Structure formats: C-alpha cells, structure tokens
C-alpha cells in the first residue's frame, strides 16, 4: 500500500465532504438571512444529497470508461465553489442551483477517488478504503463546527474559505499528477488489463445492495430519531441529544478503521457478516433499555458495528463488479448510503401513528433482513480466506 497516496486521497476526501457536511449547519443561517420556509430548506437538502447520489453511479460509469486523474480535483473544486457561493447569493433559485452544483461536484469526486484508492492500496484494500472513508467521515463530523465558527466570526461571505481550500487541494493533486496517478491508468486504455479479464457478478452485487440499503436506512434513521428519542424517552436536552449523535459518529469512525484492518486479515465477507450479526441484537434491545447510560452504551456499539461493515462492503462491491469498479463505488458510496433518506419519511409515519418505540422495532426487523442478505452473498477469490 502506498501510504502517501492513500493519506493524500483521505485528506482530499475530508475537504470534499466538508462541503456536504456543512450544509445542515448552514440552513439556520440561510433561513435567518433569506426567510426561507421549511419546505424550501428541505429542497436544498434534496438538491445537494439525494439528487447528487443518484447521479454518482453515472459518474462511476464515466470513470470506468475513461479514468482521468482530473475527475478528483475537478469534483473537489466544484463542491467547494458551489458551497462558497451561498455567501454571495440572494435568490432562492441561485442558492438551490449552487447547492445542487456542489453536490454534483461531490458526486464526480467519489467514484474517481475510490477507484484511485483501489489502485494504490495493493493487497491492503480494506485498510486503504477505511482510511479514505475516515477522511470523509471526519469532514462530515467537523464541518458544522468549522462553518458555524466562520460565520459567527466573519459572516456568510466567509464561506469563500471553502472555495480557497478546495482550489488549493485541486492544485496539489494536479501538480503531483504523475506521482499521484496509478501506473496502470497511465499506460492502459479503458477495457484493457485486469478489468478486461475480470467478470461482473450482478446477482451477487444486487444481494449486496440489499444489505447496503438496510444498513443505510438504519444509519440515516438513527440520526433522525435518536435525538427525538433522547428527549422523549429520557427527558434530555437538545445539547445532550446532539452529544449522543456525536458519540455515534465517533464510534463509527473507529469501527470503520477497525473493520478495514480486520477484513484484510480475516476476510471481507466474514467481517461483513459479523458486523451485521452484531447489529441485530444491539438494535433489538435498544428500544427496551430504560437506563439512560446503557442506552448511550448501546448507541455507541451500534455506531461501531454499523460502520465496521462500511469499507469491506465497498471492496466486495468492487470485486463483484470488477469490470466496473467506478460504478460499484458510485452505488456503495453514493446511492447505497443516501437511499436511507428516502425511507425516513416512512418511518416517520410509523412514529406518528404508533409511537417512537414502533419505529425502533421496525428498524430491528430491518437489521435482521440486512443480515439475511449477507448470508446469501457468495465469495470471490479474494473476498474470503
């Protein structure tokens, strides 16, 4: 594994995902500055996240057919400039377009970035993927703190810092293009080399996608409903509810790294199945816990288990679609993650009709379905040992 390239890719992932992670923290400022309604705010989230994630697999296919190193810096620059523009726009249409363009930049970056990591991680695919993913996780985690501090100190126009950082990172990648570009991409044409010899296993990939969707719904809905649950069930404050989400995210980062390392040593399918098997009991007991501190512990363990499977799933998806690893990355990193947001309103309806506890029981059943999907996955030569 080329550590220098992996860490450079991880840092670029951090800067890219700072833009997406910043948007939720920016929404109250946009509401205050422009008088936006809740429906308008929801539209901005849709433009940036869901729409971009649907486009991401298309960029993955483009990356497969014509892999170019400039996809990465271009994506970062577009993401940063689009988000920075929010500090200078007054009309909702302009803000909507800027947010959407920023999301498209992130969608362009991720498949190319993941393809690059795959090519320079060597035999330590799990570790390389984990380090790359952690860069993005940290971007999401720290972005709200960064942008709120900037805006409180200097106003909305200070978002231009995001564009400066993005352009600087893009320039670094371009200036080091020869050393940064994997050898096989410099010497091969699309369709040649290992990808030409490999075969796609679409049935296995569809089963893997089922497991990813189940995990995605759990991750998104836990973030949505845990703060409400903390307040309703344990009579906690909004600050304590936010702390719960922070601990959930931090434990997920730890699980992400450990999952990749263990997958390299024990096998990718084994780690995926163990992770999903751990999620089932943790999710089942969560709504039954009356003790506040035990609920905290269970939530932390849930975050750890959910993210332990993240990197192994991405690598296995690439190996199932060995001829289209860019497309596989677009599904596993993009559509497979954000699709959980489409199911959140359904679970919200369950909560409105039957109560919050029913929502968590529904998620428990979904975790079991995810485990069943992993049990019918088939190994490849390199996914199990």
Question: Can you describe what's shown?
Answer:
The chain has 385 residues and is mostly helical. The protein folds into two domains: 3-189, MFS general substrate transporter like domains (Growth Hormone, Chain: A, Up-down Bundle), CATH 1.20.1250.20; 202-375, Growth Hormone, Chain: A (Up-down Bundle), CATH 1.20.1250. It contains 17 helices and no strands. The protein has helices at residues 3-34, 38-65, 71-84, 92-120, 125-154, 160-175, 177-180, 183-187, 194-197, 202-234, 238-266, 268-285, 292-308, 310-320, 325-338, 340-354, 356-375. Helix 5 (125-154) crosses helix 14 (310-320). It is globular.
Q: What is the succession of H and E elements?
A: HHHHHHHHHHHHHHHHH
Level-2 CATH architecture of the largest domain? Up-down Bundle
Provide a count of the helices: 17
Major beta sheet summary: none
Percent of residues in β-strands: under 5%
Shape: globular
Total domain modules: 2
The third-level CATH topology of the largest domain is Growth Hormone, Chain: A
In CATH terms, the superfamily of the largest domain is: MFS general substrate transporter like domains
Mean pLDDT: 84
Low-confidence stretches: 182-194
| Class by alpha and beta content | mainly alpha
Query: Tally of extended strands?
Result: 0
CATH class of the largest domain: Mainly Alpha
How much helicity do the residues have? over 70%
- The separation of the N and C termini measures 20 Å
Gyration radius (Cα, Å) is 20 Å
